[in-house]
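Now for one record.
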Amino acid sequence: MQSSSQTFIFRYFFPVFMIGMSLLGLYIMFYQEGSEMKGFAKAFAVMLIWISYFLIQMPIRLKNIDAKDNGIIIDKKHLIEYKDIVWLTKFDITSPYFVTIKYRDKESRTDKKIAYMPSQRNQTMFEDDTLTAYIKNMVKEIKPNFTREQEPSSKRNFIFIMLLSIPFTLLAFYFMNETAHFFN
């Protein structure tokens, strides 16, 4: 079983395209006539910094995987045995879904994380897709004590991300209100 064929697009083209088009839009907004666009451009720049944090991670963490009987093959060259998987979890709030795998790297003897995209056909909210269910079942066969409780909480992660976004959102509203006077 393999991860989504769209992984290549989301790994290399999507982040570059999104950041590139956003920077172009930002450039156009800053050089528009009228002061209203300046505040919106500043707000857009603040939110772009926040979103770029996630977009820049995509090429680094997102991998093509192929689940076999003996383990997961990453990018057709590195094998993660099922016994080395600590947990895997899906962040259900986004689409497409990204599943994160935390595993113990044999060479460095450290925990590492990768992400993969399941096939779009198999993605359902709050349920495991076919590939993720297969991997979890293979891990459970080798590690009977492997449970969902070992996974990070999706709700806690969502709340954490929302709390971290508050300063960016407030600063964006400040810049928008600076010129458009939304709250006066």
